[in-house]
Amino acid sequence: MVNPLFIFLPLLSVAAGTDGPDPCVGRRIHIRSLPPRFNTDLLRHCGADAFPLADPSAAATSTPPCESLANHGLGPRTHPRSRSWYRTDARLLEAFFHRRILERDCLADDPADADAVFLPYYAALDALPYVLDPGLLDESARHGVALAEFLSRDQARILSRRHGHDHFLVVAGSAWDYAQSPSVEPRLWGSTSLLRLPELANFTFLTLESRTWPWQEHAIPHPTSFHPSSLGHLRAWLARARRSRRATLMLFAGGASRPSRPNIRGSILSECANRTDACVVVDCSGGKCAHDPVRYMRPMLRSKFCLQPPGDTPTRRSTFDAILAGCVPVFFEDLAARRQYGWHLPPVRYDEFSVHIPKEAVVFGGVRIVEALEAVPEEEVRRMRRRVLEMAPRVVYRRHGSTPELREAVKDAVDLAVDGVLQRIRRRTRALEDGLPERIYAQEEDSVDI
Q1: Which of 43, 96, 138, 262 is most buried per CB count within 10 Å?
Q2: Does domain 231-394 have CATH number 3.10.150?
């Protein structure tokens, strides 16, 4: 069994050099010291009898729970000789993000010197008892309360200095799953009220999917299974995706059961059943694809377009797998990505690397997806593929301990998320200093390329 405790790097602050400008101006982050019960202790309970990190009903390819903790949350390698591919469980993004923050330059030991405060709270893991144990369902409004109480009494000046506007944390899930009203009765299964706690109202939450209106959330990419540790590994994969022969017009990877009422996913499955010459379906029902990237990446490499219909929620991990494979994503609503990941995929560039077909036109208007995609000129398809592969490094979570060459050449998903947070915090703290609180709560423009 993999040791569930991570060996984290020591917290080191980087002092500015005596010559030249200070490279850390506006970029210093203090990592808040939290009791282990809010992070590393949660990793001890990885067995199926406690807080399972893998669905026991999933296919045999699913990674055993404790093995998901390997490689600081990236999971075990897909193959002993693999250098970049892992069986990654998205719920461990919080632990992996913590590990990556510890590697950054410009860390501040003293919070008074910091521009931002990172909370290494493993929120998704801490929520598991409330969403898995029926006996704790009525207690789900208390998710995060212990953290709020700790922050308010332990070195309270850190929180009070900017009223929490300089604090940020990662939540490995959809914001919808953590935004249930505390007053709802009976409690809704599968969700908590973390984002509704008034003590945390000013924090910035990095979630895998955000809601459209709350100003404190921002979506970051779903983690894929690809985590390169060197520039050579990244370039080798992109070269493979670039030269891959794509004989399939379009692909859908997801649940293959037909819905009981008309919707875009049902229309896709129906069209693919009738046009097997142009469409491939990768059945990911029952978690078959969760920890088995070979199952879907090979077909994606052979496809020109990858269909990204909304499911239970608008966004999909498959979007980022497709981008990584150089398979041009096809969206059916803006909430699927354009209105989510502005720091990583600038909204003004979507027409360069993706196709949009309104879902209403397909479900009720008689539009055939195959015909719409066949009408795209081949040169335009090649141009979009080039653009989507240019976007790919922005949504990759590179491996911890990666080479300096890779770190200097490419800003990955973590780098861009932190840049975005720092930009947001600067805007808020400036508004506080100027006595203009209305600017703090304004919806922010994410179309600026970071």
Answers
A1: 96
A2: no
